[in-house]
Write a structure and sequence with these properties.
- By secondary structure, the chain is α/β, with parallel strands linked by helices.
- The protein folds into two domains: 342 residues, Alkaline Phosphatase, subunit A, CATH 3.40.720.10; 93 residues, Arylsulfatase, C-terminal domain (2-Layer Sandwich).
- 26% of the residues lie in helices and 14% in strands.
- The protein has an eight-stranded mixed β-sheet. The chain has a four-stranded antiparallel β-sheet with strand order 14-15-16-17, covered by helices on one side. A three-stranded mixed β-sheet has the order 10-3-13.
Length: 483
């Protein structure tokens, strides 16, 4: 086949270290898949929550370029649609005859679903049409007013006066939307075996997004004694931004250490469920005779703190566990020497150009911030202009925070427009425990990193601050982009 089929399975809120080469979760199908794939151990999302990073995946652009800066289905949204002129990499697949299929979670913009961009849409969960809403209205709060009552706190529950309480983990007792999504994907892949035209199929699973609700038989695979608290769990966060401490003290410190371990068991078991569904999809691909003709991607949209620094879920805290995601690419017709792991800095934005190059589709590289991963897949030498650092953008979720981050091999610098900044020596402090930003002796390092951050910001038309005296708070201003 001149052009490969493309199968993308994207989970939601799955940390990189749930998979090989770390394998903190039991994921036998992903482990077997990794032996036939090229893994990318330093893959990052551009923004640590759903809509901006999913929009980045489909456009190969950063949030400042495509315009989706926070989640769109609530009244706190900064935008609802892509900026004018922004296109998806899938448009180019359509132009050369690919059939596009989408099943599961979309959540990239408001008011348009995949079918509005040329994808044939499955019946499973979409999250993008105008009838869907993540926020709450005053009528919702009125209905919630008497819901909590005076019942004692249950195991794994977060008490939230004036809101509904939050059950962090539980047990799945009946088929959920992911089960239906995977079954639909299996049925469709079998039907595609007779296709004459190449196809691209995106399967968007919702797990292991909170709350963590796996089937009991998968939870039973994890011994409670094996649920170890992470090395950073006892971080008092005193040298971190105040909102980090507030998240922990107000919310997550309600969980005892035993409950935290249970939460970890449920999260890892939920990852195992995603592995099972991925295995079902891979089996359909192989049984239908399409394995050799298909480039397959396994990835996630963003991570989960999973008790790192005593936090859960994702959002404003800049730690690697929210940004670092799994990525494996199996390409029987195009990969050389699979069963290896590349350690270059990789972005989810890189996948679109990778698909286009694999499909022999010409494109203007200046159109995308992402870069093709095909040189790594073919085991060629690293491109001479490959990134030596990687940057992230966060403008808050439903509360607004200006945060810009740069990672290099050794350093991480975080500009927090709402609080003091962060600086971590990743070689000596990989768990990001000691914030060096306010300590003496690091001014030169900070200046160098901030100038690199501004240079990247300029390249993606990102203007996160204004020069006005009360908001121009970066220690070194944007003119450093021109040094």
């Amino acid at each position: 086949m001149d052009r490969p089929n493309i199968l993308i399975v994207m989970t939601d809120q799955q940390r990189a270290d749930s998979c090989p080469p770390w394998s903190r979760a039991k994921m036998p199908n992903v482990e077997a898949f990794a032996k036939e794939s090229v893994g990318f151990s330093r893959t990052y999302c551009p923004s640590p929550h759903c809509c901006p990073t999913r929009a980045s995946f489909f456009t190969s652009l950063y949030p400042s370029e495509h315009g989706i800066k926070n989640n769109v289905l609530n009244e706190q949204r900064l935008a609802t649609s892509f900026k004018e002129g922004v296109t998806l990499w899938s448009d180019k697949l359509l132009e050369v005859g690919y059939e596009l299929y989408h099943t599961g979670k979309w959540h990239a913009c408001k008011g348009k679903d995949p079918q509005d961009f040329g994808w044939q849409q499955g019946t499973s969960y979409q999250l993008g049409t105008t009838s869907e809403h993540n926020g709450k209205s005053w009528s919702d709060y009125e209905r919630m007013a008497d819901e909590n009552g005076d019942a004692p706190r249950r195991e794994g529950e977060i008490l939230r006066p004036g809101y509904t309480n939050w059950q962090t983990y539980g047990i799945q007792t009946e088929p959920d939307i992911d089960d239906k999504c995977a079954a639909e994907a299996v049925e469709r892949i079998n039907a595609l075996a007779d296709n004459e035209d190449p196809w691209c199929y995106f399967v968007g699973l919702i797990g292991p997004h909170d709350p963590y609700v796996p089937p009991k038989e998968l939870l039973d695979l994890y011994d409670p004694e094996d649920a170890q608290l992470p090395p950073s769990f006892r971080d008092d966060l005193k040298d971190k931004p105040n909102v980090y401490r507030r998240l922990r003290s107000q919310i997550w410190d309600q969980l005892s250490e035993e409950e935290t371990k249970e939460c970890l068991r449920h999260y890892w078991a939920y990852c195992t469920k995603m592995d099972q569904l991925f295995g079902d999809i891979l089996k359909a691909l192989e049984d239908s005779g399409q394995k050799e003709d298909t480039l397959v991607v396994f990835c996630s949209d963003h991570g989960d703190y999973a008790a790192d620094h005593g936090l859960w879920c994702k959002g404003i805290a800049s730690f690697d566990s929210a940004y670092r995601v799994p990525l494996f690419i199996r390409y029987p017709a195009g990969a050389r020497n699979a069963n290896r792991v590349e350690d270059a800095f990789v972005s989810l934005c890189d996948l679109g150009p990778t698909f286009l190059e694999a499909a022999n589709i010409s494109y203007d590289s200046d159109q995308y911030t992402g870069k093709s991963l095909m040189p790594f897949i073919r085991e060629e030498s690293r491109p001479p202009n490959w990134r030596e650092s990687i940057c992230f953008q966060c403008d808050g979720v439903e509360l607004y925070y200006t945060q810009r981050v740069i990672n290099t091999d050794k350093w991480k610098y975080v500009f927090n427009g709402y609080d003091f900044d962060e600086l971590y020596n990743l070689e000596e402090d990989p768990n990001e425990m000691e914030n060096l930003s306010e300590q003496p002796g690091y001014e030169e390092i900070k200046e160098t990193l901030i100038k690199q951050l501004w240079k990247f910001a300029r390249s993606v038309n990102d203007t996160p601050i204004n020069p006005y005296i009360t908001v121009g708070l970066a220690p070194f201003g944007p003119t450093g982009a021109f040094d």
